[in-house]
Amino acid sequence: MDLLMGIDLGSTSLKAIVYDLDGNAVAQGSRPTEVVRPSTEHPEWAVWEPDQIAGGTFAAIREAVEKLDDPRQVRGVAVTGMGMDGVPVDDRGQWLYPFISWHDIRTGPQYDWWIEHVTAEKTFSIGGNPVWPINSALRIRWVAEHEPDVLGRADKWLLIEDFLNLKLCGRRVTDYSMASCTMLFDQRKLDWSPEMFALSGIEPRLMPEALPSGTPLGEITPETAAETGLPEGTPVVLGGHDHICGSLPVGAFKPGLVLDITGTWEAVQAPVAEPVLDDTLRQMGITVQAHVARGRHAVWGGNPAGGMLEWFRAEFGHEARQKAQAEGTQDWDHLIEAAAGSPPGSRGVMFLPHMSGSSCPAVDGKSRGAFVGLTNRATAGDMLRAIFEGLDYQFLDVVHAMETALSTKLERFIAVGGAVRNEFWMQNKADVVGRPVDVPAVEEATPLGAAILAGIGVGLYRDEEEALERVYRPGRTFEPNEELSRQYAEGFEVYRELYPALKAVHHRMN
After folding, report:
1. pLDDT per position as a tens digit, 399-412
2. Domain span including residue 369
3. Which of 106, 13, 7 is nearest to 418 (CA)?
4. What is the number of other CB atoms lying within 10 angstroms of the CB of residue 509?
5. What's the CATH code of the domain at 157?
6. d(CA 364, CA 399)
7. Cα–Cα distance between 376 and 238 in angstroms, integer?
8. What's the whole-model pTM score?
9. How far apart, in whole angstroms, are the C-alpha atoms of residue 420 and residue 438?
């Protein structure tokens, strides 16, 4: 039996999942992704240690491989994961400075310099990127300013997936979708931009060759085979950015379909045939990015999401944890029961989900989260329901922004990611947006998308269309409750007033 492996480097976990050609998961392994705070002098700094990323992923691969009858059935491997976070490596492939995580806000001064000297308008007109402090080019400039000897010794700056591919097969390459995260890539030419290098002062030599997703890269090396259990010579294929890979197994690379992928972040993504680089999109924080499906681009807006629910769970879920421990159940079951027991509208409590700032449609890293409408009648269940409703209002706000930018009505939403297991959340999302939300019966869409790219690269699938025919599984459709949708439409008008009302306060407090 032919098998394919998708490796997913996520902010929460490092996963390796083996699929058959029909998209069924047959083996998997995972390890946590560990955020490190490296400096007591700079508590805001956050990094991923490269050795933990590589070591944890290799352990996850080995865990999956050990569950297989014959590892030689794995015909190809591809990597997907988060964007922007990169690492400098020397000519021997040794890392020189840790990955600066997207949690890290140290690049504020580089952001200000970029806005003044390169400009947000120029950046978007070439690369389709809104300027965010987490963009790769700003991390490169920070290292150049604070650790100049590091870049002097660096051979390449590799994004996190590219670093793992180097460890797997020895190639220093990136794909178009990942290169799109850097602010140095030309969306029209699908190549590095000489103009952006000149404006930014970043040396072109630092960036690796950019190739289409699905390109064969090389083979598992003897050293990697010994660490992972994958047979030496197993083909390694170029994957791509996580949320874009997630569109492949659910068909959201086709015109008219919108992908909503929710985990730590939520991204609302629509495919387009050509890059749309109108400045209106930039002003709303919408990104234009090369797709992993050839001949397409992705237009998307996103914001942090699931982390706010995990925050509530950690800080206010003590009673639920005690109940779960006593009953042998899950704490989330009790938390969701409390949220569902709160009426729609959360008894007047509303939540602004900007605990990590806002990216779309308000581009504001200094905005902060807020509960408003609190009274002494408010319960923990009201507050948790308000978080769900606030996240779904934010989702609707992104949808409206994309509809404005693309001059079209978005009708069909396909949801994937960890959030789809939460039926309460999915139903509330449908009620808030007032349109159906489809949840296909697809296991782990993001690593499956990477596995599809591996299959295309080694010739087991002709293209994305053939792969989709093999792996797609219809699931459940959440239909909106029309009465609740009308109620939420009124609530949404109030929600849209929260950010402008609190903006000045949050900026002063920041």
Report:
1. 999 999 888 888 88
2. 304-439+480-509
3. 13
4. 9
5. 3.30.420.40
6. 18
7. 55
8. 0.89
9. 10
